[in-house]
């Protein structure tokens, strides 16, 4: 049966309308598309800084700014155990052993190593590279330091804190029956393990620290808490890589250089002790340093954790925040590139953390010092807690070690 001319015209018109509507809906869908950014183990301030930064970036030919959906993962669980971890467009995470394995496994889209240009050689050397491709791009550093009250230091007549013995002399000269000079957040398992790791690197070297971390991570992968405890027990024995660090912390505790309650301190307790002059030194992260009031922190000087020999090569514990694209698209690649280059000053200023670029603006001397210390060292190393990417296993390990120290 032949169609009439009118019917043909009507069908053509309907088909054209369908095509036009489909094109319009597709265009609307593209225009309204919101990529997803995934955050893992970053504090709220750093999350907000990164989100504001990437949303201010012009993307595409027309230079439009994108708005992002945000997924914040549980920091108490390993990255690999979280189903939402790899469903976004960009992942920003503090590097730990589980994140490292995920990046190596192919779940992260590989990047060109030329993104490391402008970074000091120690940073480039420790960046996660596989098959000549970059798996995780460092964009910011936190840092473990010691803050020392200047007036107390001058009054102690120690003269300098160039090595660990100098620091212990300072503590001994300023400790009294009613005053414990050193504070640290010993009640947080992650922070306690990281302070222990700092002392391990300082007294026993990077090789000892990495040996301890490797053994802890292998125990973690068994998913058996008893095997983690067994690994910790071996590491703390007299010939173990953590022995010197445990002995040093035990001396601090026995000599009453720290409070009897130091192994239950929260970050707020450490801050309270500094605010109220109940201590004259503290183990702090750079990010925790920022939470101390300007009036109080101006009375302190930040130093890196001193080692056995002031002239020996060092490798400092620095939590490293990395950018990792989860999809192969120009937008993600462009965003990561900008964060590693022209946006470093802005990232550092707004987050108050240290940049990874060798030459860019920093918020203050502390962030600039961190960048210098890392550039002048053998490079940043992963904190000890990063070998146990599980809150439960960190607590089990920390509880075992603190019992060794107290009993």
Briefly, what is this?
The chain is of the alpha+beta class and 407 residues long. 47% of the residues lie in helices and 14% in strands. A hairpin with a 4-residue loop joins strand 2 and strand 3 (64-65).
Secondary structure elements and pairings:
Layout: H1 5-32, E1 36-40, H2 44-55, E2 58-59, E3 64-65, E4 69-72, E5 90-94, H3 97-104, H4 121-126, E6 128-130, E7 133-141, E8 144-149, H5 150-156, H6 164-174, E9 182-183, H7 189-204, H8 206-221, H9 225-235, H10 243-254, H11 267-275, E10 281-285, H12 286-289, H13 294-297, E11 300-304, E12 320-325, H14 330-340, H15 344-351, E13 354-355, H16 365-376, H17 391-406
Parallel strand pairs: 1-4, 1-5, 9-10
Antiparallel strand pairs: 2-3, 5-12, 6-7, 7-12, 7-13, 8-10, 8-11
Helix pairs in contact: 2-15, 7-8, 7-10, 7-17, 8-9, 9-17, 10-17
Write up this protein.
This protein has 407 residues and is an alpha+beta fold. The chain has helices spanning 5-32, 44-55, 97-104, 121-126, 150-156, 164-174, 189-204, 206-221, 225-235, 243-254, 267-275, 286-289, 294-297, 330-340, 344-351, 365-376, 391-406, and strands spanning 36-40, 58-59, 64-65, 69-72, 90-94, 128-130, 133-141, 144-149, 182-183, 281-285, 300-304, 320-325, 354-355. Helix 8 (206-221) runs antiparallel to helix 9 (225-235). The protein is globular and about 105 Å long.
Please mark out the parts with pLDDT under 50 across 5 or more consecutive residues, or reply none: 19-31
> What gyration radius follows from the Cα positions, in whole Å?
26 Å
The DSSP helix count reads: 17
Mean pLDDT: 91
């Amino acid at each position: 049966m032949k169609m009439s001319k009118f019917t043909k015209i009507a069908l053509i018109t309907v088909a054209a309308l369908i095509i036009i509507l489909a094109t319009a809906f597709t265009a609307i869908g593209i225009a309204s598309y919101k990529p997803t950014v995934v955050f893992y183990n970053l504090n709220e301030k750093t999350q907000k800084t990164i989100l504001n930064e990437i949303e201010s970036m012009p993307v595409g030919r027309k230079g439009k700014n994108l708005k992002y959906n945000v997924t914040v993962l549980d920091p108490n669980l390993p990255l690999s155990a979280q189903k939402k971890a790899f469903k976004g467009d960009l992942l920003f995470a503090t590097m730990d052993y589980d994140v490292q394995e995920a990046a190596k496994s192919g779940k992260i889209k590989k990047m060109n190593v030329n993104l490391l240009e402008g970074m000091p050689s120690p940073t480039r050397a420790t960046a996660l590279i596989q098959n000549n491709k970059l798996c995780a791009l460092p964009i910011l550093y936190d840092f473990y330091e010691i803050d020392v009250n200047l007036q107390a230091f001058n009054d102690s007549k120690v003269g300098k804190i160039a090595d660990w013995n100098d620091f212990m002399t300072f503590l001994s000269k300023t400790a009294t029956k009613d005053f414990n000079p050193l504070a640290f957040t010993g009640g947080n398992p992650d922070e306690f393990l990281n302070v222990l790791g700092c002392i391990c690197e300082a007294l026993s070297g990077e090789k000892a620290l990495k040996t301890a971390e490797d053994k802890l991570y292998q125990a973690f992968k068994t998913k058996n808490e008893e095997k983690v405890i067994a690994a910790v027990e071996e590491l703390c024995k007299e010939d173990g890589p953590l022995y010197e660090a445990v002995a040093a912390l035990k001396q601090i505790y026995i000599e009453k250089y720290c409070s009897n309650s130091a192994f239950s301190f929260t970050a707020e307790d450490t801050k309270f002790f500094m605010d109220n002059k109940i201590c004259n030194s503290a183990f702090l992260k750079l990010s925790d340093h920022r939470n101390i009031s300007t009036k109080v922190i101006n009375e302190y000087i930040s130093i890196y954790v001193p080692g056995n020999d002031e002239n020996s090569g060092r490798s400092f514990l620095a939590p490293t925040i990395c950018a990792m694209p989860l999809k192969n698209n120009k937008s993600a690649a462009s965003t990561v590139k900008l964060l590693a280059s022209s946006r470093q000053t802005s990232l550092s200023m707004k987050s108050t953390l240290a940049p990874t670029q060798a030459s860019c603006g920093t918020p203050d001397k502390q962030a600039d010092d961190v960048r210098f210390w890392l550039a002048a060292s053998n490079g940043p190393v992963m904190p000890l807690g990063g070998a146990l990417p599980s809150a439960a296993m960190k607590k089990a390990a920390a509880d075992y070690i603190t019992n060794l120290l107290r009993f």
